Predict the structure.
Amino acid sequence: MPQIDPIIVTLLMFGAMLLLMAMGAPLVYCLSIVGMAGAIFLWGVNGAEMVVVSTFGLMNTFVLVALPLFIFMGLVLESSGIADNLFEMFYKVMGGLNGGLGMGTVIICAMIAAMAGVSGAATVSLGIIALPAMIKRGYDKKLTTGTIMAGGALGFLIPPSVMFVFYAFLARLSAGKLLAAGMIPGCMLATIYILYIGILCHYKPHLGPAIPLSERVDFWGKLKSLKTLILPGSLIFAVLGFMYMGITSATEAAAIGAGGSLVCAAAYRNLTWKVFYRAMMNTTKVMGMLMWIGLGAAFFSKIYLGLGSQQMVQNFIERVHLGPYGVLTIILFTYFVLGCFLDDTAILFLTVPLYVPIAKNLGFDPIWFGVLFVVSMQTAYLTPPFGYNLFYMRGVAPPEITTLDIYQSVIPFIILQTIGLILIIIFPQIALWLPDLLFAE
């Protein structure tokens, strides 16, 4: 094999990938073409055999069975009517407060995240349901869109999270521990959003006015509306409770969630063959996209690591003498930069094999590091120009909300997410207390 400077390899491989992306090539082709070219250059035509080896190695993992089940669950719930009923409930319970609809929207997003495991479900559902309702009642359009997008991104962190399942597979860690590790940080971020909206609207009521007196309900009406929580609460308990109590594995909990989503849709009389067919087809499409990106990124990463990139990074760490937390800051900054341009799945497959061993060598807990990674990806979902939640919101927002409005609306929430990330770094037990409690050896 020819000896090549890892720095030159980095410039060539990532430069070629970005060039292909700039030319409009799909991400999976960019990753696969560059990886294949590198393999053939180094090992000749036999390098193509690595594609087959990588493919079988990636697919032959039981934990990945949870992915289509969680995705199917989220897609069915999106059509089940749960989001409509939850918003109606919080409209009655919290609508009388300044910012109440915004705070309720964050809670709904957290609940959908605990049922669906994906970010897009809450963003699209509440973009259709809550956005026009809040705008109609005088809410500031930037506060409204930012709240829905940031709340929707909680699906990355609050279990069952598809991103944690992928991370567990790549880092060879317990999916159950990772899913437990995301619970408290996810609830913490949701609380930070709620406090921000409540305080902001308390001092600036025109940004999130309370609903008119004529639309409010009395105490008993509020209490009666809480029955809406029974069905989603039962599903959340079935998926997370069984897993945390050790009754099921993460994959088995995903199967329960998929079945439970069908029960929810049936209970709301929205389970039709059209809904079922659409959920099945979209699950297939999403999984096809994720698997192809995963395969391309895994192959790219394998070639890149095989050329000595990990040793290059390790040598850099030893030379700069930044200390463990200085290196951690650089790693998290690279996540932020990559998130502006790359898909979160590609970032996962490209960086986890490189960064997790480095984090372990620095003495960091890989479970804790996984939570930091997922929070970073949650931020990446909101950062222009490639943030997926920005695209979701643009797809459902009315014409009077411009793309610039959408971009500006996420800035306060990116700052709040950064504060949350810093808190998890300073206090690791925010992420580690629950998995240590539930999975104590």
Notes: DSSP finds 22 helices and no strands in the chain. Residues 113 and 155 are 4 Å apart (CA to CA).
